[in-house]
Amino acid sequence: FKHGFFTKTSSEINLSLLSNHININKSNCVLNQIHSNQIVSASKTQENEKIDADGMISDKHNQNLWIYTADCMPILFADKRKRYVAALHCGRKGLEKKILKNLIKIFYNKGSLKEDLLIAIGPSISKKNYLIDNKTLQDFYKQATHKEAINCSKETRILLNMKTFSKLPEKDSIQLNLKKYAYIQLLNENIPNTNINISNLCTFESNHQFHSWRRSKTSSRQWSFISS
């Protein structure tokens, strides 16, 4: 599956030129991302006709699914047997609203098997740089994990008991590990851990490589894509 996580220089390049440059001259599909759990078929959105959603799944051959991020996670999916692909924009709100669960349900409804789904979580903000207050943490934990915790696997329960967040004693702030929670939610949907790859690159720390909203409140984003 042809795919990629680009750096900040990609935001300055027109998508048509970018796709032509890397020899993926296909239909470019782009969303108007709104921090939701909405997922649409890729054919419903084109570069000049954006629809409000934060995920899309291929429904034709020759589709480029593009996601733009600047701290949130770009998450790419591929079914190695059915050949469907999908792309998600997922941050704290996406995890709270179960966008991962929604997408995997769509895959299963299309006949995908859990062992055939390959998932890559791209560069995004790291735990030590994503700070929230205690109320935000409690709301997140309740919405993102509580309902699933009763029936989750032993591996997921172990992860939930590990430090996926850390209180900073000198400040009224807490570090939240978004990538770890995404991983937990994927495991809870019975995705094999060997099918999940997580980038250790932090958009906040890598100023020369990535845009970061939390670092500079920028409106610029970097692109990620996967092709069907």
Description of the structure:
With 228 residues, the chain is an alpha+beta fold. The chain has seven helices and 13 strands. The strands form three sheets. A six-stranded mixed beta sheet has the order 3-4-7-6-8-12. It has a four-stranded mixed beta sheet with strand order 1-13-5-2, with helices on one face. A hairpin with a 5-residue loop joins β6 and β7. α5 (154-161) packs antiparallel against α6 (178-188). The radius of gyration is 17 Å and the shape is globular. The chain starts with a strand and ends with a strand. The mean pLDDT is 88.
Mean pLDDT: 88
- Strand element count: 13
> What general outline do the C-alpha atoms trace?
globular
C-alpha end-to-end distance: 7 Å
Number of helices: 7
Major sheet: order of its strands? 3-4-7-6-8-12
List the helices and strands and how they pair.
Elements lengths: L2 E3 L9 H7 L5 E3 L9 E3 L13 E3 L5 E7 L3 E7 L5 E6 L1 H5 L2 H11 L7 E5 L9 E2 L1 H16 L4 H8 L3 E4 L4 E4 L1 H11 L7 E3 L14 H4 L5 E6 L1
Parallel strand pairs: 2-5, 3-4, 8-12
Antiparallel strand pairs: 1-13, 4-7, 5-13, 6-7, 6-8, 9-11, 10-11
